[in-house]
Inverse folding.
Protein backbone atom coordinates (compact mmCIF):
# COMPACT_ATOMS: atom_id res chain seq x y z
CA UNK A 1 0.00 0.00 0.00
CA UNK A 2 1.26 3.45 -0.91
CA UNK A 3 1.98 5.59 2.15
CA UNK A 4 0.69 9.08 1.59
CA UNK A 5 1.83 12.30 3.17
CA UNK A 6 -0.09 13.16 6.30
CA UNK A 7 -0.36 16.91 6.06
CA UNK A 8 -3.08 19.26 7.13
CA UNK A 9 -4.04 21.66 4.33
CA UNK A 10 -3.69 25.33 5.17
CA UNK A 11 -6.95 26.74 6.41
CA UNK A 12 -9.22 29.24 4.77
CA UNK A 13 -12.82 30.21 5.42
CA UNK A 14 -14.46 27.77 2.97
CA UNK A 15 -14.32 24.71 5.29
CA UNK A 16 -15.78 26.78 8.14
CA UNK A 17 -18.58 28.03 5.89
CA UNK A 18 -19.31 24.48 4.71
CA UNK A 19 -19.42 23.30 8.34
CA UNK A 20 -21.92 26.05 9.19
CA UNK A 21 -24.10 25.11 6.20
CA UNK A 22 -23.94 21.44 7.27
CA UNK A 23 -24.94 22.25 10.86
CA UNK A 24 -27.82 24.48 9.74
CA UNK A 25 -29.00 21.83 7.26
CA UNK A 26 -28.91 19.13 9.95
CA UNK A 27 -30.81 21.39 12.35
CA UNK A 28 -33.49 22.01 9.71
CA UNK A 29 -33.68 18.28 8.90
CA UNK A 30 -34.19 17.57 12.61
CA UNK A 31 -36.67 20.37 13.33
CA UNK A 32 -38.87 19.78 10.29
CA UNK A 33 -40.30 16.38 11.31
CA UNK A 34 -40.42 17.40 14.97
CA UNK A 35 -42.51 20.46 14.05
CA UNK A 36 -44.96 18.50 11.87
CA UNK A 37 -45.09 15.33 13.98
CA UNK A 38 -48.32 16.19 15.84
CA UNK A 39 -50.04 17.12 12.56
CA UNK A 40 -49.20 13.83 10.83
CA UNK A 41 -51.67 10.95 10.67
CA UNK A 42 -50.71 7.73 12.48
CA UNK A 43 -49.77 6.11 9.17
CA UNK A 44 -47.50 7.99 6.74
CA UNK A 45 -45.92 7.17 3.36
CA UNK A 46 -42.57 5.44 3.74
CA UNK A 47 -41.82 4.56 0.13
CA UNK A 48 -42.65 5.87 -3.33
CA UNK A 49 -42.40 4.00 -6.64
CA UNK A 50 -40.66 5.39 -9.72
CA UNK A 51 -43.80 7.26 -10.77
CA UNK A 52 -43.94 9.01 -7.41
CA UNK A 53 -46.92 7.05 -6.11
CA UNK A 54 -46.93 5.87 -2.52
CA UNK A 55 -46.46 2.11 -2.36
CA UNK A 56 -45.73 1.62 1.34
CA UNK A 57 -46.96 3.10 4.61
CA UNK A 58 -45.61 2.96 8.14
CA UNK A 59 -45.88 4.52 11.56
CA UNK A 60 -45.46 8.27 11.75
CA UNK A 61 -42.54 7.64 14.13
CA UNK A 62 -40.50 6.56 11.09
CA UNK A 63 -40.24 10.23 10.04
CA UNK A 64 -38.05 10.78 13.11
CA UNK A 65 -35.61 8.13 11.95
CA UNK A 66 -34.43 10.19 8.98
CA UNK A 67 -32.83 13.03 10.99
CA UNK A 68 -31.29 10.61 13.49
CA UNK A 69 -29.65 8.61 10.70
CA UNK A 70 -28.62 11.84 8.96
CA UNK A 71 -26.90 13.17 12.06
CA UNK A 72 -24.95 9.92 12.51
CA UNK A 73 -24.02 9.73 8.81
CA UNK A 74 -23.11 13.42 8.42
CA UNK A 75 -21.02 13.38 11.59
CA UNK A 76 -19.11 10.29 10.44
CA UNK A 77 -18.46 11.83 7.02
CA UNK A 78 -17.40 15.11 8.60
CA UNK A 79 -14.92 13.27 10.83
CA UNK A 80 -13.61 11.37 7.79
CA UNK A 81 -12.75 14.72 6.17
CA UNK A 82 -9.95 15.07 8.73
CA UNK A 83 -8.07 12.17 7.09
CA UNK A 84 -7.66 13.11 3.41
CA UNK A 85 -4.55 10.93 3.11
CA UNK A 86 -6.77 7.80 3.21
CA UNK A 87 -9.05 8.91 0.34
CA UNK A 88 -8.82 7.49 -3.15
CA UNK A 89 -7.64 10.03 -5.73
CA UNK A 90 -7.82 10.09 -9.51
CA UNK A 91 -4.17 11.24 -9.56
CA UNK A 92 -0.97 10.27 -7.83
CA UNK A 93 -0.42 12.27 -4.65
CA UNK A 94 3.03 13.85 -4.50
CA UNK A 95 4.70 16.35 -2.19
CA UNK A 96 3.98 19.03 -4.79
CA UNK A 97 0.24 18.41 -5.13
CA UNK A 98 -0.72 16.85 -1.78
CA UNK A 99 -1.94 20.00 -0.07
CA UNK A 100 -4.04 21.10 -3.06
CA UNK A 101 -5.50 17.63 -3.68
CA UNK A 102 -6.31 17.12 0.00
CA UNK A 103 -8.01 20.50 0.22
CA UNK A 104 -10.06 19.85 -2.92
CA UNK A 105 -11.08 16.38 -1.71
CA UNK A 106 -12.09 17.72 1.70
CA UNK A 107 -14.26 20.38 0.09
CA UNK A 108 -15.79 17.85 -2.30
CA UNK A 109 -16.70 15.49 0.55
CA UNK A 110 -18.15 18.43 2.52
CA UNK A 111 -20.33 19.51 -0.43
CA UNK A 112 -21.53 15.95 -1.03
CA UNK A 113 -22.33 15.64 2.68
CA UNK A 114 -24.46 18.80 2.53
CA UNK A 115 -26.17 17.64 -0.67
CA UNK A 116 -27.12 14.32 0.92
CA UNK A 117 -28.54 16.09 4.00
CA UNK A 118 -30.55 18.46 1.78
CA UNK A 119 -31.73 15.56 -0.38
CA UNK A 120 -32.94 13.65 2.66
CA UNK A 121 -34.60 16.80 3.98
CA UNK A 122 -36.38 17.03 0.62
CA UNK A 123 -37.57 13.48 1.09
CA UNK A 124 -38.82 14.42 4.56
CA UNK A 125 -40.77 17.29 2.99
CA UNK A 126 -42.26 14.97 0.36
CA UNK A 127 -43.30 12.45 3.02
CA UNK A 128 -44.85 15.17 5.18
CA UNK A 129 -46.65 16.83 2.26
CA UNK A 130 -47.93 13.48 1.04
CA UNK A 131 -49.11 12.47 4.52
CA UNK A 132 -50.97 15.77 4.83
CA UNK A 133 -52.53 15.38 1.37
CA UNK A 134 -50.43 18.07 -0.32
CA UNK A 135 -48.22 15.91 -2.56
CA UNK A 136 -47.31 17.41 -5.91
CA UNK A 137 -45.65 15.75 -8.88
CA UNK A 138 -43.20 18.68 -8.78
CA UNK A 139 -41.84 17.29 -5.50
CA UNK A 140 -39.87 14.71 -7.48
CA UNK A 141 -38.18 17.58 -9.37
CA UNK A 142 -36.86 18.81 -6.03
CA UNK A 143 -35.28 15.44 -5.28
CA UNK A 144 -33.87 15.06 -8.79
CA UNK A 145 -32.33 18.52 -8.61
CA UNK A 146 -30.22 17.47 -5.61
CA UNK A 147 -29.17 14.27 -7.36
CA UNK A 148 -28.08 16.45 -10.31
CA UNK A 149 -26.25 18.75 -7.88
CA UNK A 150 -24.15 15.80 -6.69
CA UNK A 151 -23.09 15.09 -10.27
CA UNK A 152 -22.29 18.77 -10.86
CA UNK A 153 -20.14 18.76 -7.70
CA UNK A 154 -18.29 15.67 -8.98
CA UNK A 155 -17.60 17.29 -12.35
CA UNK A 156 -16.34 20.49 -10.72
CA UNK A 157 -14.12 18.49 -8.36
CA UNK A 158 -12.54 16.46 -11.18
CA UNK A 159 -11.93 19.58 -13.30
CA UNK A 160 -10.29 21.43 -10.39
CA UNK A 161 -8.34 18.39 -9.21
CA UNK A 162 -6.96 17.86 -12.72
CA UNK A 163 -5.40 21.34 -12.66
CA UNK A 164 -2.79 20.11 -10.16
CA UNK A 165 -2.37 16.38 -10.84
Amino acid sequence: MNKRLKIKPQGDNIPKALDIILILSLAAALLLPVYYYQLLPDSIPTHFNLRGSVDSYGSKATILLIPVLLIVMATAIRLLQNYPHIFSYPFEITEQNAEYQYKMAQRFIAVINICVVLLMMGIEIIIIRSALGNYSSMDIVFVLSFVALVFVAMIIYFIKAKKHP
